[in-house]
Give the backbone structure.
Amino acid sequence: MSQLLRRAARGNCFSIGTAILSNVSLSKFEPLLITAVNIAARAVHLVFFIAIGNKYGSTALTDNVIALLAPLVVLTSVATGAADTVAMPVFHRVKNKDEAAYVYRFFSKRIVVYISLLSIVICFASSLVYKNNNYYLIFILFLIPVLASLSALKAGVLNASNRFQAAVSGTLSGAAAAILFLLITPIHIYSFASSFLAFEAGKLAWLSFFKDISSGGRSQRTDSSEKIIRWGYKNTKIQLLASFIMALIYPVDIWFAQTVKEVGAVTFVEYANKLWNIVPLLFTGHIAVTYAAMSKTASASEESFKKINVHSIAVRYLVLGTITGILIISTSDYLVSLLFGFGKITAQQQTVLSGLLESYLFGSGFYIGGLVYVRALSAAGKINILLIIATYSLCCNIVLDAILIKIAGLIGIGFSTSIVYLSNFLLFTYWHKNMMIK
């Protein structure tokens, strides 16, 4: 396995997926199919936000919902990040479907209980902070992190079962459900909020139809399954904390956007983030396959895992991600005009959105390269470094937001994020050369 990955790293980024096919039981063209399905899924998800932008524009209503949603986005990012990242290494260690069923049920129950309670607390705390007593809106929003977490867990198990297309197609189904909901409902604050819920509900419903390594199991408790749960639970707690700290960057950006004192500034940050995801969606299919190979290698032998040339793989993704980001930057004005030019966003607002998007795109390559390092850490179960880098990222983002927003205005928020991605990649590189390969 490690030799195959090293050969892939010496070739090109496309070969990373194809070099590990025999080890993850995929066909010759599977990485292409995974990437294609992922692009289609994310494209439809992007259409969902384009539809929102053209139907609702950038107003006080959208700012209100997104501001209330921001703390829940933190919780969702924390829960889904932990569930998706930890699931694959955990389920690569189970011995049979009975153990897999037991482990899956264990984590599912705790997601429903813990995330529901946290979501309710966050919703009511947000209503107090923003002085919003709309309890119908709170009820709609509190369900989003719960459904998203269950979807992430299911997707992680499907990936561990080598059903990569099934996992990414959940996004396609969820986005389609949300767009349909958006089209048939009138313009209203409840409709706007419920469209996000429709996305998560549609995604989970679709994923539930697919079988995975836990399907048909009798949920049998064994010493082996308990050991796996203890290992996974320990890593999950660390991952939760790291994800929580990293996810705080989003509400920090939202808060700084509110200081601009411009109607729609908060919404612009949300729209720019979604458009920026054009770059990651082009690579996540192959990264998912690479992660599966790394996870299997790590579960089999730590020494074999250390021989994987993670740095070479990360650098090649960095280069391709940077080139892609530059290409999109060169066409950002046209892209924004094409996507939002027929709705309620004015030409002046499109210019602001285009500039903000460009500031985010500068860090695309470093984000993609850093993601390879993150997956390598998670595969090996050595995620303490993620906690350190997440803490650094948050502190760095706060300082840079405060400085750059005074210098460059709203686009300073995007530049701040890009600089954080750059510094994170350098820290990951230092970790790899001085710790992991020893």
